[in-house]
């Protein structure tokens, strides 16, 4: 050590003298914030050391706490695991409650918009047997349910009641091989018979090979089966194969797309029009009208009554009845050979609108039928006897 | 005193002759230099360019050929200058300490009796002194002091010329070996 000092004596003395004078300067000089340089230098020199010491101390304590003192960790882990399990169950329960509330809301909206009288029911069980596509619902004859009634959801048809008990009913699902219903395509109006296959998809029979129907097209109930009223969504055409004499058509049912827990039983079915646009499941927001928008005049009797609900024959009958009344003719009283009413007579509509069956949009599916003007919103059905509301159309879920 | 026509670089430290001075010389000369620095410019403004304390430090450091001695002389003279100026104590002390140390270090290798060497060394250490002082003022005090290169070079040359004469005078105060 002594030899080292002797060897570097000069430089050591130099450094000591310089350092001493630096300290002297630092004691006197202050920085912009009136802090002496000696204090700044001291803090700057001490801080890293203190930081290292603190890191070592914290690391040592952490090591002791995390790895050495693990006495109650297992017990605490078990307790936390139990808490997590409980919270998971609670979360699932709340999710189910929320879903149930959503479904109930959707059903309520659908009920309020559909012209048919419905009874809400909850699926309480499934039928026995692996191939059986049947469910039990909690509404029976006490609630007005009868055998043969249609069962639907806002998304489409589900099945039909095959047995009605006092407090429950058995519903044959559309996927059951014994199920059949009349359907009609949305675009071409192609009619066929929907049948279950025991699989998630259904098939449509009796569609002649020359009829035009394409995959992606929506099918609706035709009302021909006297079970399902006309105009309820059935599903989307999935596959179309050309065959003789009938096409092979597979359909993806829409009624059970979101599960089957709550359904509506049509205790008083009303035929509806086939909508021009496919049912929309997305909610459509319709804002309130501006304050200065004049209200449309209320129907005070000048406008013609709404077109009769029902089938084409019903509407045609109503039209002929109006024509007969206009000419003072009573149907059923004329003798053979008497002059029949002029069925080509144009009945004047209110405000000079074309007569029934003559103007644009005549028929059961065109806008302005019966002289009324109905504003059609996207996803909503065109007016017939009453504007049909497709499932989910103009409703928020 | 005749200047040798021998080599400028010394092959070993033993070739260099260590000059010795009396104690009163070691005290009086730096004191006189400091007093000159303080008072003479009051009466002769044109002499304010002279850095007499620096020249004295360079001289003693070169001639004594002792690094420790040189840095101590520099430290004492520098601190004395600081005490008589508005600088914080230690600013010129540090600079002169470094000048004394390096001058002594150079003096060990060079023939410091040669006038050209003296001229060059004085010129160099004046520049070193000015530059290091400027550096410390900016670094430690944070003051925006300007460094005028041309002026510094001229003053360095003038001080070197004066320094040769001063050194010649101080050579007479050496103890005979």
Structure overview:
The complex is a heterodimer of chains A (397) and B (177). Chain A has 397 residues and is α+β, with helices and mostly antiparallel strands. Among the domains of chain A are: 17-68, no CATH class; 312-371, no CATH class. Chain A has helices at 2-7, 9-28, 37-68, 73-113, 312-326, and strands spanning 117-126, 134-137, 150-153, 156-164, 169-173, 180-185, 191-196, 202-205, 218-221, 233-241, 248-253, 262-268. Chain A has a six-stranded antiparallel β-barrel. In chain A, strands 6-7-8-11-10-9 form a six-stranded antiparallel barrel. In chain A, a hairpin with a 5-residue loop joins strand 6 and strand 7 (191-196). In chain A, helix 2 crosses helix 3 (37-68). Chain A is elongated. Chain B is 67% helix and 0% strand. Chain B is mainly alpha-helical. Chain B has one domain (18-171). Chain B starts with 22 loop residues before the first helix and ends in a 6-residue tail after the last helix. Chain B is globular and about 45 Å long. Chains A and B meet through helix 2 of A and helix 3 and helix 4 of B.
On the 0 to 100 scale, the average pLDDT of chain B is 86
H/E element order of chain A? HHHHEEEEEEEEEEEEH
Q: What share of residues of chain B is helical? A: 55-70%
As residue ranges, the low-confidence spans of chain B are none
Q: Report the structural category of chain B.
A: mainly alpha
Overall helicity of chain A: 25-40%
What oligomeric state is this? heterodimer
Strand order of the biggest β-sheet of chain A? 1-2-5-4-3-12
| Through-space gap between termini of chain A | 89 Å
Count up the helices of chain A. Answer: 5
Strand content of chain B: under 5%
Which range does the strand content of chain A fall in?
15-25%
Unreliable residue runs of chain A: 298-305, 350-397
Q: What is the count of helical runs of chain B? A: 6
User: What is the number of independent domains of chain B?
Assistant: 1
Order of helices and strands of chain B: HHHHHH
Overall geometric form of chain B: globular
Mean pLDDT of chain A: 76
Give the biggest sheet of chain B: none
């Amino acid at each position: 050590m002594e030899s080292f000092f002797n060897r570097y004596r000069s430089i050591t003395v130099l450094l000591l003298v310089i350092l001493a004078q630096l300290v002297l300067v630092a004691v006197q000089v202050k920085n912009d914030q009136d802090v002496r340089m000696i204090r700044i230098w001291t803090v700057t020199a001490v801080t890293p050391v203190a930081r290292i010491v603190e890191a070592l101390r914290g690391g040592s304590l952490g090591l002791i706490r995390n790895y050495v003192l693990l006495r109650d960790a297992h017990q605490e882990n078990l307790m936390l695991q139990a808490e997590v399990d409980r919270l998971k169950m609670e979360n699932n329960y709340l999710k189910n409650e929320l879903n149930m509330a959503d479904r109930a809301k959707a059903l309520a909206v659908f009920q309020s918009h559909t012209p048919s009288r419905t009874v809400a029911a909850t699926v309480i069980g499934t039928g026995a047997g692996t191939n059986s596509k049947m469910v039990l619902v909690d509404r029976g004859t006490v609630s007005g349910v009868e055998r043969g009634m249609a069962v639907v959801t806002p998304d489409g048809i589900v099945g039909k009641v095959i047995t009605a008990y006092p407090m429950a009913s058995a519903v044959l699902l559309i996927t059951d091989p014994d199920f059949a219903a009349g359907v009609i395509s949305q675009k071409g109006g192609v009619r066929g018979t929907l049948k279950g296959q025991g699989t998630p998809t259904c098939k449509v029979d009796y569609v002649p090979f020359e009829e035009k129907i394409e995959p992606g097209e929506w099918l609706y109930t035709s009302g021909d089966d006297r079970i399902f009223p006309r105009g309820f969504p059935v599903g989307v055409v999935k596959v179309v194969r050309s065959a003789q004499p009938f096409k092979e058509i597979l359909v993806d049912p829409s009624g059970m797309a979101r599960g089957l827990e709550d359904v509506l039983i049509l205790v008083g079915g009303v035929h509806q029009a086939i909508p021009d646009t496919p049912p929309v499941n997305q909610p459509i927001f319709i804002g309130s009208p501006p304050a200065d928008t004049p209200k449309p005049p209320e129907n005070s009797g000048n406008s013609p009554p709404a077109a009769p609900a029902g089938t084409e024959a019903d509407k045609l009958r109503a039209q002929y009845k109006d024509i007969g009344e206009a000419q003072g003719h009573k149907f059923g009283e004329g003798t053979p050979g008497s002059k029949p009413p002029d069925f080509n007579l144009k009945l004047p509509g209110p405000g000079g609108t074309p007569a029934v069956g003559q103007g644009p949009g005549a028929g059961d599916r065109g806008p302005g039928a019966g002289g009324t003007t109905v504003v059609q919103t996207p996803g909503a059905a065109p007016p017939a006897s009453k504007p049909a509301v497709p499932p989910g159309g103009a409703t928020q879920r | 005193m005749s200047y040798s026509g021998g080599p400028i670089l010394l092959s070993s430290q033993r070739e260099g002759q260590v000059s010795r001075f009396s104690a009163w010389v070691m005290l009086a000369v730096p004191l006189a230099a400091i007093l000159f620095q303080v008072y003479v410019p009051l009466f002769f403004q044109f002499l304010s360019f002279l850095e007499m304390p620096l020249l004295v430090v360079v001289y003693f450091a070169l001639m004594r050929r002792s690094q420790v001695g040189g840095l101590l002389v520099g430290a004492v003279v520098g601190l004395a200058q600081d005490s008589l100026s508005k600088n914080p104590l230690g600013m010129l002390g540090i600079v002169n300490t470094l000048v004394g140390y390096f001058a002594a270090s150079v003096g060990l290798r060079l023939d410091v009796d040669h006038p050209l060497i003296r001229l060059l060394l004085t010129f160099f250490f004046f520049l070193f002194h000015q530059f290091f002082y400027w550096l410390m003022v900016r670094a430690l005090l944070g003051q925006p002091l300007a460094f005028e290169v041309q002026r510094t070079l001229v003053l360095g040359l003038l001080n070197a010329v004066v320094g040769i004469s001063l050194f010649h005078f101080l050579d007479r105060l050496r103890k005979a070996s």
